[in-house]
Write a structure and sequence with these properties.
Distance between the termini: 30 Å
Shape: globular
Strand order of the largest sheet: 11-12-15-18-21-24-27-30
Mean pLDDT: 85
Number of strands: 31
Oligomer: single chain
Largest sheet: 8 strands, parallel
């Protein structure tokens, strides 16, 4: 469920809370999201979307509790690609608008009801809610324009979005939201000082091919997972990798490595399509992911890692959520020398141990089971100076 955050300067608002109004939804996968939470303008309620759950559902649930308020604008801050938003572990894009249409129509009803709410500080008015989308390149090109137009039709809201990078000017971003479905007054949710201080851009690289190569051409409309990781490693700031194109249908997809491990050396969030839909295999010939170098803010979400390991080097940090690591016969499923956190993740069926931990390991609502080893801990091997935290009654360690 999305979490309500109230910056300190809002606590003494002179406008009754039932008549403020802007709501801001910020995906927790957005880099340095806390600075954005703390930097909103006054009379605004902020909700942080749980990046491990369906963000469309979270927004719908929150809006349903505020239909009696005078909602002037809704702001959504998340990673984006042309014609696509990453909201928690769900995608809202051209290919999924029909799937989410019932929820989006609920938004329309809520916006309509809210716009007719009597405000005692002014008078009873009817206005159209504004929906402001802060996501890189969401409105870019024909795909982006079509997405914005259809989202407008489904929600009834005036929409402002961007066909450019959102965020730090030093990294090529801005906060203009220059693509709009109507003439509309746009008031950004974040104070000017916050926008100037924000040092990130909401950059997303979208994988649309299952082959395991990097042809070095970032402009040929073909992006593999290896190429996306190489691009993210070479791009300043925190980035995101999403999956579009062939990955958006219901057919499960497998990426089989044919060369070296996928090495991550910079901060990035890999936003997979779920363990039943996305499998990355090392064919027991290669480590699948190696987290190394300056990568201290890496997250992998919604990926099944099979027949190959994850390696977290010293000084690196990995958050692994809603994923699985299984079937590795060439070593432990996960070898950790850095800081590793598992949430809603399963590690199973590895024949040289589930997790070999020489750093800091925490498990939350996760399972380590059905692994074997010739010696030293078939499930979890914890070295002498390592740290292990097990933090949920739903965790299973066998």
């Amino acid at each position: 469920m999305a979490t309500l955050h109230t910056p300190h300067f809002q606590l003494n608002s002179v406008i009754p809370t039932s008549y403020t109004h802007s709501l801001v939804f910020i995906d927790a996968a957005v880099e340095d999201y806390q600075s954005l939470v703390n930097g909103v303008i006054s009379h605004t309620k902020v909700f942080v979307i749980d990046s491990t759950k369906n963000g469309v559902e979270q927004i719908t649930e929150i809006l349903a509790t505020r239909a009696d308020q005078n909602l002037k604008s809704i702001h959504i801050v998340c990673h984006g690609t042309p014609g696509n938003l990453q909201l928690g572990n769900a995608y809202l894009g051209l290919d999924t608008l029909e799937y989410h249409s019932q929820q989006l129509q609920q938004w329309q009803k809520i916006f309509s009801t809210s716009s007719k709410t009597d405000n005692p500080l002014t008078s009873t008015t009817t206005s159209i809610a504004n929906l402001l989308i802060y996501g890189c390149n969401v409105a870019f090109g024909d795909v982006g324009a079509e997405f914005i137009a259809k989202l407008h039709q489904l929600t009834g809201a005036n929409i402002a979005a961007s066909g450019q990078l959102i965020g730090s000017a030093a990294l090529g971003g801005n906060w203009e939201l220059e693509v709009r479905t109507a003439q509309m007054e746009v008031t950004l949710a974040f104070a000017e000082t916050t926008r100037k201080a924000y040092a990130e851009v909401l950059t997303t690289f979208t994988v649309n091919d299952t082959v395991d190569t990097d042809d070095g051409n970032a402009n040929n409309c073909i992006t593999t997972l290896r190429e996306a990781i190489d691009l993210a490693n070479a791009t300043a700031g925190d980035d995101a990798i999403a999956f579009g194109g062939i990955f958006t249908d219901t057919t499960p997809d497998t990426i089989t490595l044919t060369s070296d491990p996928l090495t991550i050396t910079d901060d990035v969030s890999i936003l997979g399509t779920g363990t039943s839909n996305l499998n990355v295999s090392g064919k027991n010939a290669s480590t699948v992911f190696e987290i190394s170098g300056l990568a201290t803010g890496v997250s992998i979400n919604g990926v099944a890692i099979a027949s190959g390991a994850i390696k977290v080097d010293r000084n690196s940090i990995l958050n692994l959520a809603n994923s699985s690591v299984s079937g590795n016969t060439a070593g432990s499923g996960i070898s950790n020398s850095g800081i590793l956190s598992l949430a809603n993740t399963s590690v199973f069926g590895n024949t040289q141990g589930g997790i070999s931990n020489g750093g800091s390991l925490s498990l939350n609502n996760s399972s380590v089971y059905g692994n074997t080893a010739l010696q030293d801990g078939g499930g979890i091997y914890n070295s002498r100076f390592a740290h292990f935290f097990w933090s949920s009654r739903n965790c299973r360690k066998i």
